[in-house]
Design a protein that fits this description.
heterotrimer, A mainly alpha, B alpha/beta, C mainly alpha, A: 2 domains, two-stranded antiparallel ribbon, flat, disordered N terminus, B: alpha/beta, D-Maltodextrin-Binding Protein, domain 2, 2 domains, 10 strands
């Protein structure tokens, strides 16, 4: 429960909380709908496959509705900067088929440190190489995890 | 014209045979081999694969590394699709067993038997129906009698839905002329607990799960013939007068679609040699209570095809697929 | 006395130089494997198993047992230091462990985790030694109806953890249950919410979910809320001396560890209840009976102690049905069962009679493995805490990469990697909107078992719900739920609503 750990609440943009709650209500209704019409709430001898989805979905939707009506939208401060790691990592993951797992992750560390954290290139490359090497040795060599190999690397293997 | 071709073919064949005797193959791995296991590390298929790799190493026939690649998910479908994506590659092999094929049938998976190249079958497993050792159900007739008195009230536990145990149950339910209630559990361990605790009346067990006979009384086996000791006292269904209750679960290996013929031959020979090592026969097959066998690529393909049709028919009869 | 004698003989078998070496190597490897998010004891043992076939069975099992213990120790590290629980029980450890390390007490949290693991594990092993077969038979009394009632109790106890905002906590719990219904469960055998994707057919994988929801969302938070370690004066507080527990602290975690050890061990023996239920119920017990119970969840070493002791004792407990009945009580025990068979041993009631050397060697090796693991762990803590000094500019990219590699390694699946990323973003927004994540994950872990057991019980009783009341164990557990869990929760919700009503009226 990381919310407990954070610094005293910043009352940030209040649209976020109702939006998340709205998302939960939609999910709850979807679960309840599928459970009710598709999976079946009751079978000949007790709860059916739709029972939990319907009960929990309706429960989440109703409580979420109440939460919206309460209109107490405390939210932690959130900025677009928070999402940068997700976007950058998304790009890095998308490049795995090209570079392979180890190289893509190494590149991510190097580029992130140099471009976003504004560290020196030397430091960035050094840390990236250490991390990449550690991943390769630990996961690739010792634990023999079958990492995807990149298309660009294929000629060399 | 025809004659010369014939002669040519014979000559070619002779050359090939010589090559085989000499130990060299028309195809040999040029890089590391990927051994796909469509289940998690530590499971039955995984241990099977890891032991086979050890046995192959002992034969010394593969001079490249064989790397296990666990691709669990979708009851085997994720691993099967991965193997399928390696079309035409001789460097990818996968475990292929009866349960894996059953889930293809039951889940109507996108990759089916026809999409893979069977290579060999090295061992067979079979099943039992059993009750608690202290139970007053002494034999199969007692069990049937109970079910006649209480139709649908006698509970039979098994591991999972749509797998080996469930299929064995469906055969029981169809062929004994009485109704039982199937209770699926997450694994053989949970089934055994429930049986010993008296929460269910009977249970399906695989031979390979090595359940101790001091705890469970086996009423009948699904094998085609009587098993070796310590199970030689357990009658087959056939002996008890119930036909059609035979189920052997194969444990085989396959490759991706369109695997080069030379590679198929190579792997067939490797598997044959590995099946004869002590490592395999004793440490794996015997210790796991399996039945040793060998079927080559062609024989396996035919066998799997027959089994697949049988599974489909049985699951249809049980109402589990349309 | 007979047992003590056998145990001594077991020690005589296991205490050779090569066995102690094997235990040390196993413990060290286990700590590394356990500390890496995404790899747990099942993977570790599966990887090491083929190697041990070359060894003498007793040496082999000692190495595996030590590896198992090492994993349990290592699993708490990433939970405490990075808020990335490596396995399900560690989710509970992170509830207090991560706040502690944020407050600069990472060293104390790690020491507490290891010492209470040791105490809990030892309690578990002692119970296994002297009462193993009896406990295993008690475990058999838990059929589907009883297990369903127990899991329901655990699920309802999540109510205790809901901090200042019980309503949002409850919604999170419901979401966890909903996510758990994805896939083909054993309970019904029909695919739910899979949208014809084979990747969802067996449900969402827990480890990528937890790595995303805890670890990656943490990275997103760190992006803005940067804590510069040097500015916070952390460096002065991370020496060895500051990491050790003082007398008072050590005394305060002792009763917690003992209580949790006993409870965790009992839960661990039950078929399929597992270490998560063990550590979680221990934590809830501590919250109820502990002296500072109310403060659990805000960074108290007692919380870490309860979770870790419960978890290790449960692990020892899962060996009782394996050794005395041949029934694996956990995923790891199932892999070990495979190992036993490879050595040509038949697990079951006769194992004690036919292979006493092996059984008692194994049991004594658990003591040995536990000692080796705690020694190895204590030796590396001073280095581990230094990780907290690494500045955010390096931590952010490196943790992000660890999240990706860890979630890939569980199933070798790129789908899991994308899923982890998505779960991280979703959890970040949920956290920002003050929806707690831990109840979601706990509900996710517990639900499948509840659904399966409920269905099994009703299949057995032909739909008669009385099966839950006729069984004395199930009936007792259900009464407990009514008494201790639902009543206060209802009262609390009622009070919140009424207070709000008053406030609204006053305005």
């Amino acid at each position: 429960m990381s919310s407990v750990n954070q610094e005293p609440a910043h009352e940030g943009r209040s649209w976020l909380s109702p939006l998340v709650t709205l998302g939960i209500i939609v999910m709850g209704l979807a679960w309840a709908g599928f459970g009710w019409w598709k999976y079946g709430v009751w079978m000949h001898n007790g709860p059916g496959a739709g029972f939990f989805p319907v009960v929990m979905g309706l429960g989440a939707a109703l409580l979420g509705g109440y939460e919206l009506l309460r209109r107490r939208f405390e939210t932690d401060r959130v900025s677009w900067r928070n999402l940068w790691p997700a976007v950058a990592m998304g790009l890095a993951i998308a490049s795995i088929p090209l570079f392979g797992m180890v190289l893509a992750m190494t590149l991510f560390i190097v580029l992130w440190m140099a471009l976003i954290e504004r560290q020196s290139w030397l430091k960035s490359v050094a840390i990236g190489a250490c991390a990449g090497g550690a991943i390769y040795l630990l996961f690739g060599m010792w634990l023999m995890v079958a990492f995807p190999e990149g298309a660009l690397m294929a000629p060399f293997t | 014209m025809t004659k010369t071709v014939m002669v040519g073919k014979t000559a070619l064949c002779g050359v090939l045979c010589l090559a085989l005797v000499g130990g060299a193959h028309a195809w040999e791995p040029q890089r590391n081999v990927e051994f796909v296991v469509p289940y998690s590390a530590g499971g039955g298929s995984d241990i099977n694969a890891r032991m086979l790799v050890e046995a192959i190493r002992e034969t010394g026939m593969v001079n490249r590394n064989i790397l296990i690649n666990n691709r669990p998910g979708g009851s085997g479908a994720v691993g099967n699709s991965y193997t399928y994506s390696k079309r035409g590659d001789g460097h990818t092999i996968t475990t292929f067993n009866g349960g894996q094929m059953m889930s293809m049938v039951v889940n109507d998976a996108s990759v089916q038997l026809d999409d893979l190249t069977p290579l060999a079958t090295l061992s067979l497993d079979t099943l039992f129906v059993g009750v608690r050792a202290e139970s007053d159900i002494e034999n199969l007739d007692d069990l049937i009698e109970r079910a006649e008195q209480d139709p649908g009230g006698i509970t039979v536990g098994g591991a999972g839905r749509g797998g080996e145990d469930h299929l064995a149950f469906a055969m029981l339910d169809d062929n004994l002329g009485v109704d039982f209630q199937y209770v699926p559990f997450d694994g053989t361990g949970d089934v055994t607990s429930a049986l010993l605790g008296g929460h269910i009346d009977a249970a399906i067990f695989k031979l390979g799960s090595r359940v101790d006979q001091s705890m469970v009384r086996f009423l009948a086996t699904y094998s085609e013939e009587r098993l070796d000791a310590p199970f030689d006292e357990v009658p087959t269904f056939d002996e008890l007068g119930y036909e059609g209750l035979e189920l052997m679960i194969f444990r085989g290996y396959a490759g991706p679609p369109d695997m080069p013929e030379e590679a198929v031959e190579f792997w067939e020979d490797v598997f044959r040699a590995a099946a004869e090592t002590d490592k395999w026969t004793q440490e794996y097959v015997e210790n796991n209570g399996l039945i040793p066998t060998f079927m080559g690529a062609e024989e396996s393909a035919e066998y799997y095809q027959r089994e697949q049709e049988r599974y489909r028919a049985l699951f249809q009869e049980a109402g589990m697929i349309d | 006395m007979d047992i003590l004698q056998s145990l001594m003989q077991g020690f005589a078998t296991s205490l050779t130089f090569s066995n102690i070496l094997a235990a040390l190597v196993g413990a060290g490897l286990g700590i590394i494997v356990g500390a890496i998010p995404g790899l747990g004891s099942v993977t570790g043992i599966a990887l090491l198993l083929p190697l041990t076939f070359q060894m003498d069975p007793i040496t082999g099992i000692i190495m595996l047992g030590a590896l198992y213990y090492g994993c349990m120790y290592g699993g708490s590290y990433s939970a405490i230091l990075l808020n990335i629980p490596g396995d399900a029980p560690a989710v509970v450890t992170s509830l207090d462990g991560y706040p502690l390390s944020q407050q600069g007490h990472g060293g104390k949290a790690l020491f507490t985790a290891n010492i209470s693991s040791f105490i809990g594990g030892t309690v578990g092993i002692i119970m296994l030694t002297f009462m193993g077969p009896i406990l295993a038979h008690v475990g058999l009394m838990f059929g589907p109806a009883e297990v369903a009632a127990l899991i329901l109790l655990a699920l309802c106890s999540i109510g205790w953890l809901l901090g200042d905002n019980p309503l949002k906590g409850l919604i999170s719990t419901f979401i966890g249950v909903m996510l758990a219904t994805i896939g083909i469960g054993t309970a019904f055998g029909q695919p739910r919410f899979t949208f014809d994707s084979m990747y969802l057919l067996n449900g969402i994988s827990f480890i990528p979910l937890v790595i995303g929801m805890f670890g990656f969302s943490q990275v997103l938070v760190m992006m803005v809320n940067r804590v510069d370690p040097s500015a916070k004066g952390l460096s002065g507080r991370l020496g060895l001396k500051e990491s050790l527990l003082d007398r008072k602290e050590a005394l305060s975690i002792l009763p917690v560890s003992l209580r949790s050890g006993v409870l965790g061990n009992l839960v661990g023996i039950l078929p399929g209840a597992g270490a998560t239920t063990g550590s979680f119920l221990s934590y809830v017990l501590e919250k109820k009976v502990g002296r500072n119970g109310d403060e659990l969840g805000k960074g108290r070493i007692q919380g870490v102690a309860a979770s870790e002791a419960g978890n290790n004792a449960a692990a020892a407990g899962s060996f009782a049905p394996l050794l005395s009945l041949g029934i694996p009580g956990s995923g790891t025990a199932a892999v070990l069962l495979g190992g036993l068979m490879m050595w040509g041993l038949q697990p079951g009631p006769l194992l004690f009679q036919n292979n006493p050397d092996f059984v008692w060697g194994l049991i004594s090796s658990m003591y040995l493995g536990n000692v080796m693991a705690v020694l190895a762990a204590l030796a590396i803590i001073p280095f581990l805490v230094k990780l907290l000094l690494i500045p955010a500019s390096i931590m952010i990219p490196v943790i992000a990469v660890v999240c990706v590699v860890g979630s890939y390694s569980v199933n070798n699946s790129m789908f899991d990697v994308w899923f982890m990323l998505g779960a991280g973003v979703v959890a970040f927004f949920m956290t920002a909107a003050r929806y707690p994540i831990a109840p979601l994950l706990l509900a996710f872990v517990l639900t499948p078992r509840l659904e399966t057991s409920l269905r099994q019980a009703l299949d057995i009783s032909r739909g008669d719900p009385m099966i839950f009341l006729r069984s004395p164990i199930a009936a007792t557990l259900l009464t407990l739920i009514l008494l201790f869990v639902l009543y206060p929760l209802a009262k609390r919700l009622f009070m919140t609503v009424r207070r709000r009503g008053h406030k609204a009226a006053a305005e």
